[in-house]
Amino acid sequence: MSSELEKDVERERLAAENSELCRQIDELSRRVAELEALLKKLGRASPTPRLDQAYSLKAEEQRQAVVEAGGKKRRPRQKSSRRGRIATQEKLDRAERIEIVLPQGFAREDCELLRRRPAWRIESGRAMLVAYEIYRGPQGQVPKVPGLLSRCEFGLEILLTLAHQTQIVGLSIDKVLAELQYFWGLTLSKSQADALLSRLAREWHVEFDQLCQLLAVSAVVHTDETSWSIHSVWTFLSESARLLIFGCHKDAATLATLLPKETFGGVLVSDDAAVYRGFSQAQKCWAHLLRKAIKLTLLQPQSTRYRTFLDGLLALYREACRAAADQRLGAEGRQRRIDQLELQLCDLCEARVADATPPASSVERDFFNLAHELVRLMAANELFTFVRVPDVPGTNNESERTLRNPARNRRTDQTSRSVRGARRRTILTSVLESLRTRLPVFDLRSVQAEVSDWFQSGLSCFGRMLQKLGLPALDHSPLDDLVPLVNST
To answer: Which pLDDT belongs to residue 78?
Structure first.
């Protein structure tokens, strides 16, 4: 009896749920029909009405201003925040001190005030705004402000710091700006820093051309390049110039621009790349050759043949270094030592060179190529030049060390992405690295004093060297051939 009663209750509950679901279905169907009719009436347009004006916080403030004005549209009051450039007079009013600039040899009462010029300088370890009062002499002499470029509101020490930290140290502009703010309290925008770097590169363009001339008449030139085929970095180091060419092509045209084979009479220290062949005097890098021999022993450490060859080649190089450092030897004595070294090298490579058997493995092929390369370089008198000329080193390690940082910057994507950026970096890096070899102490104070003298006298230390050599100024800049602007986009 109880089971029948439970079934009746369950049937009544299901019937009630069914009737409720039917009612909901009817209501939803009616709503769908209404929406379809509305959509058809709107012509299948978006049901969301489009506003006549774009909604934003600023637009809403303008609408509220119209309502408050009684329906009359009026322009909202501008905020008091300042935008744009600061007027020169306001900068002069903010200056912490005034400095008078007079022509040399004249008193203030004999001169006439020409203009007042504000500039940011670094004094006592902090940034300071200085107002310069520039006076014109009786005959119209206009003096130059020491340490300040024309039409520039930042001292030379700021430009040199930007150039050194970004081009030599390899920091990004953002990090350098943070350093300037932290150490000196100087606030610069990224666009200002970029403009200052470009300005310094334009000022140093003449010095870069002078370095190219000094390189072409150098006695010894070290050169090396990165492994990238295009947009490569090529370095040229000599006793008077250090050039780093960014964004250039690694071809004979680039090399001929800086070191034409017809006129360059010095010794070229390089690796055995094909582009470096054909010079009258050359020294191939022994470090590259020894590394190839070391590679053979690492690939097959159980081979006594490769180990014997490496030991013999290393002993031969050490003996050549001792002969090069022996100051008791004259020209004839050095030539005799070279003849002895060449005989020892022939004995070391004779077995592999005389064997015409094709290499059976990739390691044996490397050994075959190395032995023939040594014999070929010996026949071209490019292995023991450093014994004949003591000032020439036997390796090209200095160029490789110079290229280390640019190669790392390439891996971390901190390279110039445009032709203009590559040209700017080429000029700034080359001039700063060349100054490193010229100055007894390479720091900000010494570089600033040297460069300030350039702008005051109109002639750099590189220009003075060219005058001593009797070389005229170039009519055409080599940079236009190395990194031409016509390829920029």
So the answer is: 56
Dist CA 147 CA 99 (whole Å): 13
Structure tokens belonging to residue 259: 């070191």
pLDDT at 389: 92
Question: Tokens in use for 374?
Answer: 């040594």
Specify the residue for token string 């010029």: 117
Q: What is the DSSP letter of 267?
A: E
Task: 449-457: list long-range contacts, CB under 8 Å, 24+ apart.
Answer: 451/156, 451/160, 452/146, 452/147, 452/156, 454/207, 455/144, 455/149, 455/156, 455/203, 456/144, 456/146
In this predicted structure, the answer to whether residue 69 has a pLDDT above a threshold of 90 is: no
- The pLDDT of residue 88: 85
CA–CA separation, 483 and 81 (whole Å) = 44
**Burial of 290 by CB count in 10 Å (0-12 exposed, 13-18 middle, 19+ buried)?**
middle
Tell me the mean pLDDT in the region 331-355. Answer: 91
**Span 247-269, pLDDT tens digits:** 888 889 999 999 998 889 999 99
Q: Given 3-state DSSP classes, what are the helix, strand and coil percentages for the chain, each rounded to the nearest 5?
A: 55, 10, 35
Using one digit for the tens of pLDDT, what is the confidence trace for 410-430?
666 566 778 899 999 999 999
Quick one: which of 331, 375, 334 has its CA closest to 353? 375
Q: 403: which residues sit within 8 A by CB, 6+ positions away?
A: 224, 225, 226, 233, 235
| Cβ neighbours for 36, distance < 8 A, ≥ 6 positions apart | none
228 and 246 Cβ atoms separated by less than 8 Å = no
CA dist., res. 211 & res. 199, Å (int): 19
| pLDDT interval class at 489 (50, 70, 90) | very low
> Is 207:213 a contact under the CB 8 Å cutoff?
no
> Cβ atoms within 10 A of the Cβ of 451, count?
25
Q: Give the model confidence (pLDDT) of 112-129 as tens digits.
A: 999 999 999 999 999 999
DSSP-derived pairing of the beta strands 282-284 and 232-238: unpaired
First to last CA, the chain: 95
